[in-house]
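Issue 218. Parser rejects a valid record. Input:
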Amino acid sequence: MGTTWRALVAAPPAFDRAAARAAVEARLEDILAQMSHWREDSLLGRYNRAVASTWVALPVDFAHVIEAALDVAERSGGAFDPAIGALVDLWGYGPVKVALAPSQEDVRRARAISGYGRMAWDCAGRRLRQPGGLRLDLSGIAKGFAVDAVAAVLERQGCDHLLVEIGGELVGRGLRPDGDPWWVDLETPVEDVRPLRIALHQLAVATSGDYVRGRHTIDPRSGYPVEHAVAVSVVHASAMLADAWATALSVLAPEAIAALARRETLLVRALTRTPAGIEEWISPALRALMEPEEPAG
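Output the parser choked on:
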């Protein structure tokens, strides 16, 4: 995935650190072998090269991610789309870098072979049809899935209190050794916006935007990179869904971010560029968690 992983644990008695690390690395290797856009020999790579009308059987993990990705794609009106690998590659945001921006005709051709609407998904049979030329890219959801998966591995190792991070996406379980929750700061790459600290107690957070890697998020509906999203953070019980929703929301204009977040009752903090400068928006669901509780009676 082109990034690193880290896990902090309040280790139980007789915790075998070496065994836990080996288990995590094996789990991550299995996920990469299925869903990596950066490995030609991954299952995703084989699907992308399959001939038209081929049905590809998916293992449980891959099927779970695809089902979630298609659901968010529908709910977001196509702002999230797992089938824009051709556009990702065209702009040089995938494994192979490009020297020049593509032409309008290049973008048009890539859009013509892209889009989740071209896929046929057999949920019961756990298989996905390749319509011909379509390329999956699960970068906007697979990293979050991996965060959830690593947390589950460590819980099976007896760790009920942990914080897992992969490339800036995090999930917290239980408490720190001092009894506090796992406090994390939402990424705030703007000096005049106040930092926002949240407690990841059985929660995950993912952030999408251009503050680290530049404008690399593509709007699937236009085929062009997004220019307004600085940092859009989503807090959710699932890191996989936090990842997907952060990607979807970062594509949308500020008004559409607010409308979708309200409709889906999402916990969101968005920093976006407007003619007036960088603006911060906090969703009602997240703001409700930040407000002090009224005293009883």
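Fixed in the parser; the record now loads. The two ends are 52 Å apart (CA to CA).
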